[in-house]
Amino acid sequence: MQKTDSPPTGRPSAELGKREAGAGRGRRLLALLLRSKTGTVGAALVLMVSLVALFAPLLATYDPAELDPMLRLKPPAWMDGGSLDHLLGTDNLGRDIYSRIVYGAQVSLIVGIGAVLVSGAIGAVLGLVSGYYGKWIDALIMRIADSFLAIPTILLMLVVLAVIGPGLTTLIFVIGITNWVSYARVVRGEVLSLKERDFVKAAKAVGSRNSRILFKHILPNVVSSFIVISGMNVATTIILEASLSFLGLGIKPPAVSWGGMLSDGRQYIATSWWVATFPGIAITITVLGVIFLGDWLRDVLDPRMKAKG
Predict the structure, then answer these.
(1) What angle do CA 284, 57, 246 make, to 5 degrees?
(2) How much is the pTM?
(3) Ramachandran region of residue 73, left (φ > 0), alpha (ψ -120 to 50) or beta?
């Protein structure tokens, strides 16, 4: 009798199943996103700002640091005296506002995402350790967290930046190390509940190491809460960066910051309103997009919101 080939089994089929499952989850999330007006608007705004930041060299019409005193405070193109060469006008040094806003998107997103990654990594690790081991370790980490909460965040940042000096890397680092507390507290609360679950007790019973239990079994179950907090904190970080740059302790020239543009235009608000208005609009659009997308992520990923629905 002639033998027939059996269908392939084993690892390749398992990997194929994982890819199909991942694709199915992706399609489900996309369908949920398109079903939500808030989520769709937020995603569209975030995507738009991200594309502007990514393709800034192609979209900008001038070097953002190029000075032309002969064209200082030139109004937008649709006003008397304006020109299509400078669509949104120029600032007090003759720099093109449109090009500076385009390049400013890069700084806002880099600081917003970079600082959240730093603070999220610190907070997640401390929260995992605090919730899992408990006892004196938990007490020590939580008292450190309380001490951070006792000091106003913006004041702590101002002191550190005044000592170290402003700069992109410094700003990301300072915001990151001063905003880890919310991550640590939320992750700790999740871990306190998860470590009493049967799958964790089973892992301990078979002799799994604590590090494996933490990062293999517990961490994947707190990722959704981590993503929800991160989404909202990106918006807060963008505002913090703009505030610090406005005060002169953020991004150093010739790098462009929307907060720095606001600071440059505040004394001309009565006569040349466009210098400060357009970077303010850029900050508002970006923050609203992140908040809308964060609200949608909370509704989709937070199990408590699912239970209410």
Answers:
(1) 35
(2) 0.81
(3) left
- Are the C-beta atoms of 263 and 180 separated by less than 8 Å? no
In a domain, 6, yes or no: no
CATH number at residue 156: 1.10.3720.10
Low-confidence ranges of the chain (pLDDT < 50): 1-4, 6-7, 305-309
Domain containing residue 158? 33-308
Bridge partners (DSSP) listed for residue 96: 90
pLDDT at 258: 92
